[in-house]
Amino acid sequence: MAYTLITANRNYSSWSLRPWILMTALGLPFDDHIEPFAAASNYAAFRSFSPTGQVPALIDGDRTVWDSLGITLYLADRHPGVWPADEAARAFAQCAVAEMHSGFATLRQDCPMNIGVRVEPNMHSPALGGDIARLRELWEQGLDRFGGPFLAGKTFTAVDAFYAPVVFRVRSYGLDVGKAAQAWVDHMLDHPAMKQWESEALAESWREESHEAEIAAAGRIIADYRAG
After folding, report:
1. How far is the C-alpha of 30 from the C-alpha of 98, rounded, in Å?
2. The sheet that has 3-7: what strands, in order across it?
3. Predicted local distance difference test score (pLDDT) of residue 44
């Protein structure tokens, strides 16, 4: 039976992007189902398909798998390629995924994801500067140690999927991550799955007030490439 992956708006939903791009990049077939953010809180509506009232959720027959990390671990038990084959690369990738899943709170707050806009950000706080410095360090470590062009070696794996939303944030806010890390960002932006997600994001016509307010609070919007 085919998987169904439930995600939200392409422009806003960074957590949705992670399993979507992982499954797309690995060629895992799934039915793609979008439940848009219709209000500031979508908990009640999303509870119809997810026990947490959040996206993403993966439906596998009569089984529901929730949370981007939970979905990744579930897929890794069933499909090769989710994690690097090399043991050292796999350990790095798993640690980096866990760090992304639980950390970088200031980056999430100060640079909310909106793929279609470019923002001149407010002055960076020391906490945001620390998050950006850590991203640069982590990405450079993976690229240098495992040879690139992806974070844990030659092939796209879960660690690239988990940092894919940050790729869009780097571009939207003009974040300086250094030459080597920027090369990975550019490589990711050129990936067919990333291009597909971006194309669908730019074609979206709906807007959600609270998400738009977050972007406006993050800085001055200098370009908006979205339809509508």
Report:
1. 25
2. 30-34, 3-7, 57-60, 63-66
3. 77
Residue 91 CA to residue 74 CA, distance in Å, equals: 17
pTM of the entire structure? 0.95
**pLDDT confidence bin for 1, thresholds 50/70/90:** low
Cα distances (Å, whole numbers) of residue 56 to 90, 122, 143, 155, 163: 24, 30, 28, 24, 16
CA distances to 6, 14, 22 from 169, rounded to whole Å, are 22, 10, 18
Tokens representing 150? 């992806």
8 contacts 57 by C-beta, under 8 angstroms: no
Contact 33, 5 (CB under 8 A): yes
List CB contacts of 175: < 8 A, sequence separation 6 or more. Answer: 111, 132, 169
Can you tell me the distance from the alpha carbon of 167 to that of 27, in angstroms, rounded to the nearest whole number? 21
Q: Are 157 and 81 in contact (CB under 8 A)?
A: yes
